[in-house]
Amino acid sequence: MRQLKIDGIALSLIISIFLVTIIILAVGYTFNSYESDTARAIDQSGREITVTIYDDAQEGIVWELPSALSEHFNIRLYSEAADVSFSVDIDNVVFSEENLQTAYMFPILISSIDNQQDKQQPFAKAEVYFRHVDNGDVVYYVTASYLEGTNKEEVADYRLHWEIEERYQEHIDNTKLSDELFYIVYGEVINNAISQWSKVNISDLYISEENYPATLTLPQAASFTDRLRFGMVDVFSSLEHNVFVEHIDLTPATMLEVLGDYRLWKAELPLYSMEGKPMLTEHWGVLSENLASFEAVQESAPVIDEQLQVAAQDVRIADLDRFRKKRHDGIYYEVPNSYTPYEPRSFWLVPAEHIGQRFIRSIREQENAGDHVVGSYLETLAIVSMNHSLKQQTEGGYWLTEPQSNWLHGDYGIEAGFYDTRFSTDAAMFLLDIFNYYRIDRPERSSSIELVELMEVFDAVTEYADFMLWFAEEYSFTTENGGLLVQDYFHPTATHEPTHVSLNHLVTEMNFLLQYYMALFELEHNQSFDSLYTDRGNIYVDTAMRIRLAIHDTEMDWVKDNYDLWYAYMPDGSYGLQDYPRLTRNDLRVGVELVNKVLNEDDNVFRKLIYYKEKYLQENGIPLW
Questions:
Q1: Residue 539's domain spans which residues?
Q2: What is the pTM for the complete model shown?
Q3: Number of domains in the chain
């Protein structure tokens, strides 16, 4: 048996002989058979190491989790087949200290064993990712696939599994461990606007010890308890430009085995090929001491959000199960049919981390209202999203949309891999939100180490703010008084025609620059922002005000005869396209607040545009909220 120990400076393989008692019980395998006399390592920053792994070839690979979580969980990747072995590619293990989390990636080679010829033949690979968040939670991801060139007809039935052992605090004492399992259900369409929570009582499986082991086939959805999210298994084929297609018909059922004093969460990881190309089989989850509360969910039927904790409402709306997909590198949305490549149920990596932003804003709103934030799930996903966003940011300071928009390509000649001002500005706004929360709003929650890390987040926001100054000057139409109508799109390497200017993009750019200026002021002056100290000559304020001036110069040109707002200013000087029902109005409302806060002015032009938009909504029976 080999133990891989990570010391924070380098990765080293420590080869030791361990006393291993492999106990194969009638009810299954128990992780407690692994014993180690190696102390848990501490990295340079003083954080406890997240993961110790035990590589035992034919028994699979076991991960021991840190501190408190190790009392509740163990994780194993294994095969039910006797002729399959696992080995960790030591040279390519990745360990990194990130912002408010420690990240690990373990590449694993899966081989079939030929006992007659005494050799192993690799046929598949897996990558296992862990994110040990500073609040104590661990997020894991596992992705597996055939190796290129593998003839699956020649591969034995390997029966690859990901398994989590969850231990009871007391033997068969369901008051000590949540006995309820929650999942999201849909109607005829997968839509987070109409989805609801539902519940299963695990105790329905058994009455007494004679019923053990009891096995539950889990819903085809992510399962939540008060300290665990156990996702469904996804099977993807891949297209160009980082687009993946869901194949729900290939998704196996996940299982839960209830035993005497512990239970096993099992995800089978079947491997497939399509047209000779390996497909990806993936699964992810979250382990926590206090993940979330769903205590208001009723047994008999799904319930409305008003009966739930705020966090449960946020989790359902975010829906990283079927409505969106979460992979190890970010959150994926369904590809619009106006994009290339496109297939039904295809997903693309969206650069704007809207889910993380929703979660951190929800936490702030709850705390500002004096409410207790129940569970750690929102914070954990916000921190993971923050690190996704930092990695996706380009050297130029912005974020890219990877697929091709057929609309933009047809109208302006924009190729795949373009800059979208709204998505990038939303990404930067999210980073600023999370920075403000930990550095300014709640500094007592952050250690000195974390505060240093958070300055890296602010540096990333600064990179985008500086890029926005350049872009607004170079790619804009100038109004009569010198205002800037900033174009929506840009390709960094391919020439194209000037693009239209969406009102919602424009207002959001102004809002971002003003919010960035406020945060910069508080950092530089070590005091809360006050409009009395606003430097109107500041380059960020100046560009924000030139964007505002452009909206003032064009004021009533945005208003249609029916009082709706035009979506965009077009390159030929006309106005066109259909506006969103409420998005632009909401952006304008934020703009009014920020102009008042930074400049101590009431923006009557913005208020007028809000008035006309709401008049249109009311006259056409469209809800204001």
A1: 393-619
A2: 0.89
A3: 2
